[in-house]
Amino acid sequence: MDVIIASNETRAKAFLNKIKGKNPLFICTIGTTETGKIAGISAAGAHPEFTDFTPPADAELLLLGRCKSINGVPVTPDGIPTPGLIAMSALGLADIPVLIVSGGLKIKPQIPFLELGGCPGRDIRTGNAVDNVAEVLERARIAGKHLAKTTDYLVVGESIPGGTTTALGVLSALGVKAEGKVSSTLPENPHNLKSETVKAGLAAAGESFGSLAKNPVKAISCVGDPMMAAFSGLVIGAASHVPVLMAGGTQMSAILALINALNPEVLCNLAVGTTRWVARDKSSDLKGILGQFCDTPILAADLNFSASRFSGLRTYETGLVKEGVGAGGASIAAMAKLGDKVNANLLLKEIERNYALLMGLK
Amino acid sequence: MDVIIASNETRAKAFLNKIKGKNPLFICTIGTTETGKIAGISAAGAHPEFTDFTPPADAELLLLGRCKSINGVPVTPDGIPTPGLIAMSALGLADIPVLIVSGGLKIKPQIPFLELGGCPGRDIRTGNAVDNVAEVLERARIAGKHLAKTTDYLVVGESIPGGTTTALGVLSALGVKAEGKVSSTLPENPHNLKSETVKAGLAAAGESFGSLAKNPVKAISCVGDPMMAAFSGLVIGAASHVPVLMAGGTQMSAILALINALNPEVLCNLAVGTTRWVARDKSSDLKGILGQFCDTPILAADLNFSASRFSGLRTYETGLVKEGVGAGGASIAAMAKLGDKVNANLLLKEIERNYALLMGLK
């Protein structure tokens, strides 16, 4: 299997053994925020206002194989396609069922999605970023409990622009050192801008580094995003019954920090599934963040696009985008389900086929 | 197993064999309409305006074991409790996972639910009862296709007040003779009122008996309800992959007539699962409606409340309520899953226990 074990080898191998040959349910938790529109924060959209359309379009891509809310597929300002393309290709190859869950959206996707009563997030610089957190968390927990009964294990991914900034916000509020350690979709990781944004948010909320260590719900409410309540609740509800592969990059450290504060007893049934681009990223440090509070293993799909015939995909090798829409976790789940029938190279062929189809390329 | 085979014995037994010992997913499709508020049409609520709260409250009962949108549980004007109590008890006993799907609601339930983009229904006497039918049907089909991959089989039930009147509407539009044959929650089945309501709706739409036989989407749009598009789409999406037990009374004949017009090739993978009260009802004729266009088997949970210690439950034996919220299908699914470990009598004990808890009785 083309999977890199990026931390905690024994637990990582045990997790991989648990999911080999198994049939998961893939959940993509989506949300939008005003934080994602701060200039220079996110590349999850051709320009800031487009970030409202990226999560619903990613969700449509996963369920329909094409977007309805936008033409083509979501791209960065440089035209690099969404990692949703990777997730869609992996899930399609392995015939893995998909459920979309809304944490809170400005634009609703034109597909079926699980509604949890959440609202879109405000700019975290207000210090009052997310409404209704406790209720969304509880509804997600109930959904996770029921969904766990339908599947061997869950893979949970996310699509929310600006998500690493809100991740830094929540990690800081919970007292986890993550400045300079969260990942970015952009060519130059804007660490200073993220830190300033988080500092402004904490100050506006009357909070400081670590002051909300014992109040994870308030940490999301002040400086988090609406995906987090949905994601954490789903994991907490499901993971006492089945393993959960948390599909994402450094944002997963914020979810794990929340779970560590809310329900640490489920941590033993979790792993992070990301991409090689995150695991090997020199401008971020997922392992360094997690090491401060848990020993959850990190698995990384050993994807390599350097030999792709499309420049839009080759660019992933320069460190742009890296992860999102559960791309890494979906790839790991597809390889775990299909065994020798699929590897990173076959995955790339399928991604190229879908990219060509969707972009009208040859 | 305490299950009555009410029609098509060979196919019914084959279906029962397919689901024995299997793990289903139970889906409750909910919706509200103005049709349900016509005086004398529905008893699914203590008075007409309460019918907006009945489906969300039923949904909460299934997921939480208690209602949030109302105090206590939904009752008829005579105080007879919702059949959701039967479904909740059966599903709980057998540890069957539940998913709520909204076809279109005035009041949203305070639990996770699958959103399909539908709206509440208007009074069918307008001839313009439901918006967005084709889109909801398509989204439900996609959801059904994905959910089928997570389960051995699906049980799909419904909660929508006034549902037998809209069923009569759609059956009539499709050219199926159902006047005097649909069931009722009320002590006296108001057949004349239902027929007049449907005639007014067809006339307002410029349609007549059978004129929409080849246009099932328009039949729902003119004289149907928002639950129908969601329910039919889920069944169509799922039934080419797994068996589907359609949990309900005479409303299921309208869903089957729609499926017969939309995707008849999936009919072979379906059965209706209802209650003895519907199967033995002298004021309605489910078998007589179905016999006109399909040979889908009818199974009926052999529930009997005559020995209950609660008068509210004993009243079910006088022909009130009879069915709803997938009560019959949920009971059949629980017995099929647990085999000898549960029968109708044990189910009644569990229903009584929950009824006492929820109503504060001893």
Can you put this structure into words, describing what you see?
The structure is a homodimer of 362-residue chains. In chain A, 41% of the residues lie in helices and 12% in strands. Chain A is α/β, with parallel strands linked by helices and 362 residues long. Chain A has an eight-stranded mixed β-sheet, sandwiched between helices. In chain A, strand 6 (244-247), helix 9 and strand 7 (270-275) form a beta-alpha-beta unit. In chain A, helix 2 (54-64) packs parallel to helix 3 (84-93) and helix 8 packs across helix 9. The radius of gyration of chain A is 18 Å and the shape is globular. The two termini of chain A are 30 Å apart. Chains A and B meet through strand 3, strand 4 and helix 4 of A and strand 3, strand 4 and helix 4 of B.
Can you give me a brief rundown of this structure?
2 copies of one chain form a homodimer. The first copy, chain A, is an alpha/beta fold.
Query: What is the N-to-C succession of helices and strands of chain A?
Result: EHEHHEEHEHHHHEHEHHEHHH
Shape of chain A: globular
Low-pLDDT segments, ≥5 res of chain A: none
- How is the largest sheet of chain A built, in terms of strand order? 1-8-7-6-5-2-3-4
Range of helix content of chain A: 40-55%
Query: How many angstroms separate the termini of chain A?
Result: 30 Å
Main sheet of chain A? Answer: 8 strands, mixed
Rg calculated over all Cα atoms of chain A: 18 Å
How much of the sequence lies in strands of chain A comes to 5-15%
Rounded mean pLDDT of chain A is 97
| Greatest interface by residues involved | A-B, 29 and 29 residues
